[in-house]
Design a protein that fits this description.
Length: 120
Amino acid sequence: MKNVAYLLIFLLINSCTPSYYYGYVYDYDKKIPLDGVKIYDGHNKKQSTTNKRGYFELIKTKNSSSILIFEKEHYQNDTIPSISIQNGELMKERFKGEKIYLFSAKSTFRDSILKANNFR
């Protein structure tokens, strides 16, 4: 009976613990962490900001996918879904410690992509 009580307490504590999206945001060209990037959850309006290591945590809504929006002055905003789906099947949940790269307004790589698209 004691074991059942301990199991129930354990399950109750774990079910109350919030789940997070988390990761690191870097400058694409310089490969350095970005401080002060604002991250918004596009579905529930929760937000977070990166620290000097580029790290962020954002509480996620249980049993729901989301779209995260990354914003920083002098950088191109980016919108990334929290899950990757291919052929109708869940492939991978994102934002579990991955690195996200933002293009600065002066990024040479971004400019080369735009030029290449103009030649099509």
